Amino acid sequence: QKFVYDFTEGNKDLKDLLGGKGANLAEMTNLGLPVPPGFTITTEACKVYLESGDAPTALRDEVSAHLKALEERMGKQLGQADDPLLVSVRSGAKFSMPGMMDTVLNIGLSDASVAGLATQSGDERFAWDSYRRLIQMFGKTVLGVDGELFEEALEAAKHAKKVTVDTDLAAADLKKLVKQFKKIVESEAGREFPQDAREQMDLAINAVFDSWNTDRAKLYRRQERIPGDLGTAVNVCSMVFGNLGPDSGTGVAFTRDPASGHQGVYGDYLQNAQGEDVVAGIRNTVPLADLESIDKKSYDQLMQIMETLENHYKDLCDIEFTIERGQLWMLQTRVGKRTAGAAFRIATQLVDQGLIDEAEALQRVNGAQLAQLMFPRFDIEAKTELLGRGIAASPGAAVGKAVFDSYTAIKWSRSGEKVILIRRETNPDDLEGMIAAEGILTSRGGKTSHAAVVARGMGKTCVCGAEDLEVDTKRRRMTVGGIVIEEGDLVSIDGSTGKVYRGEVPVVPSPVVEYFEGRMHAGADDADELVAAVHRIMAYADRVRRLRVRANADNAEDALRARRFGAQGIGLCRTEHMFLGERREMVEKLILADTDEERETALAALLPLQKADFIELFESMDGLPVTVRLLDPPLHEFLPDITELSVRVALAESRKDANENDLRLLQAVHKLHEQNPMLGLRGVRLGLVIPGLFAMQVRAIAEAAAHRKNAKGDPRAEIMIPLVGTVQELEIVREEADRVIEEVQAATGTDLKLTIGTMIELPRAALTAGQIAEAAQFFSFGTNDLTQTVWGFSRDDVEASFFTAYLEKGIFGVSPFETIDKDGVGSLVRSAVEAGRATRPDLKLGVCGEHGGDPESVHFFHEVGLDYVSCSPFRIPVARLEAGRAAA
Ligand code: ADP
Ligand code: MG
Ligand code: MG
């Protein structure tokens, strides 16, 4: 087994073995770009080290051999007193991870070799500057000394000399600083700063290995589902010096603008500095374009190299480079991060340049980015007053009056006010306030905090962990940098950037939504350019996808919008919404009915209303399938609240004027009250115990379809029975439904071609899918309820109570209500698909849970062979895009 690869031996596809940084350094080396020579220690070596607590013996020898080769090539030895070879030791896992170790530069310097470096470079100041940097970085990252101590000493030295930037410190000052730094190391780490160069290197390498297992790195991996045993690679790279005077420097660059995607010169440059200075913001950088006048030769070469890299990686790259006395060196490259908008633009630009094809373009964007582009956003041109910044926990742009407790949030929102609920952190008691608010802002907690999890579940804008804000709930105010925001003051929060503003920032609609709505077309300005890119990518996706995309919609308005967004039908029309509002009273009558006659009267009153709803719906979706689900929720949802009604009746009784209807209602409410309504009398169970209920609904659907047929329309209704657990339930309902349909067909002289199917949302239904398919013409997986019943938890309860703890402990990286749990719930879906198709090869299969609009879940549904996904109208473009990406 080979543990060490020279930069000339690797390539960009070896990220597993060499880490991202190492693989790309090798790739650049082999492209003939100027990379300082070096070698990479593999992730395999790290694994052995982590398992056995010691570096493999073979590793030491291999490192020695590679070091020797490097020394021969460079003509000097590591730490050699009169002319030292210096190296950097750089971490580099496959995925970059917070909590992993930083890089140590200038390894090889010591009390002896610092003089040699001074003589060789002819620059004493440079030599001592490099030495103090080594002790500082080594002390902090390898020996675990608090970095602040070094910073304070550096500040004090500048202060004593009355200068503000480190370049104004002379060799003598730096020499003194080195002495101080060494003392800090001794007292804090309990050991001297190692003078032996090889010891420095080995300690640094082991420290990189060890950093794989810091608590932060472990937690991050568990949440992101990164396997814990990948290990990190370590890069040893000969040093080049950007701090050798004004003809030296260091910088970062992008091959194109990561915000717009436009080609051009984007980056920052800092003269006379080493790499970490740019990031640390110690001195002000200049725009990369200025390098042209500072050092034209290096600038031209850099432009050339960037073009080479783009053409080679066929993507936007970011790079780190250093210029040493007029000689350009490449120190890192990788495919660069970009904004959501730029991702779409860059993908189409690369297609136009002939660098990638359409299938590849689809892989360069994703549904999360598209979703981000669809949120309304704050007007960037508006004048704003930034109060602070937190974590962008749940996207959107929300404006409202500041309130500091849930009670006020509910009270104000009831009277029509828009409010932003501001808390230090939220807990389950805040749930109602969160629902009432436009957005949620907290000063504590991260992406997995209660506020963040619940807000994402509700699709509500949320900024959390804005630590600059001091929230004082008792006095109903928050302060930030001397500004006081009182209850009732307007604030604006941006859940996509984490920014918090004072006052009302104007909101502009997303141009991408305007485009989907058909209100905007591709043109010339900036937003239009984005829209044109989205338009093209969506066209690619639609061309290749196999999954069809339907909408969950209950009325014509939503259906029409869904159609504009590209829906190919309705996958879930919930009929319970048709039972609310002023019709609630009719439902009450139905529930209270004592006799068949009373019941039939109540149903007969509902029938024409339902029918009218369906006519509208079928018309709006003419020519496309519409799956109508028969009544699903427990009946108590249509009745008054048990406590409220009890109080009312009790009061009335004490006044001796209780009314008859209230008394009957209370009786019914008591009778229907359930401990676990989610698991009680609902779905098909209702249809089986309330005579005529489902028949009335089926009749309304059939008559509406017949009406549309006779009006020369093309209705394609599908009747869906919810919460079936066994085929017998379905058989009974079907018999009745078939009879009703036949009656309607005969009476109207139509052939309606209605199909009848079921939801698969109980484990038993999934487990007996083969039997159920005998009676069902289609399955629609209700993955919300299926997730609840497979896991045995009720969503409303768990998301607000213990999900935060589960996410923090890494038990799941994302809520199973957000992304389908492939191993558990998903495996039931998979086997039900197989069993269902075995019984009935032409069984139509879809999904209508919220997972239908979740990117990762869509890929899963493609893979298990469903025919369509159905999601909320707003998620349809995301589902179309992901279905395309899954198939491409
Ligand atoms: P990070 O992952 O934090 O970017 P790097 O390993 O890239 O860590 O190094 C941090 C900084 O040090 C970068 O600016 C990099 O360019 C610079 N650097 C790393 N190795 C060398 C080297 N051999 N010579 C000069 N600068 C280096
Ligand atoms: Mg780093
Ligand atoms: Mg770097």
TrEMBL record:
Residues 417-498 form the PEP-utilising enzyme mobile domain. It holds the Pfam family PEP-utilizers. The keyword Transport does not apply. It catalyses: pyruvate + phosphate + ATP = phosphoenolpyruvate + AMP + diphosphate + H(+). Signal peptide: none annotated. PROSITE patterns: PEP_ENZYMES_PHOS_SITE (PS00370). Its EC number is 2.7.9.1. Residues 59-284, 291-341 form the Pyruvate phosphate dikinase AMP/ATP-binding domain. Its cofactor is Mg(2+). Residues 532-883 form the PEP-utilising enzyme C-terminal domain. It comes from the Bacteria. Belongs to the PEP-utilizing enzyme family. NCBIfam families: PRK05878.1, pyru_phos_dikin. This is Pyruvate, phosphate dikinase. It comes from Streptomyces pakalii. The gene is ppdK.
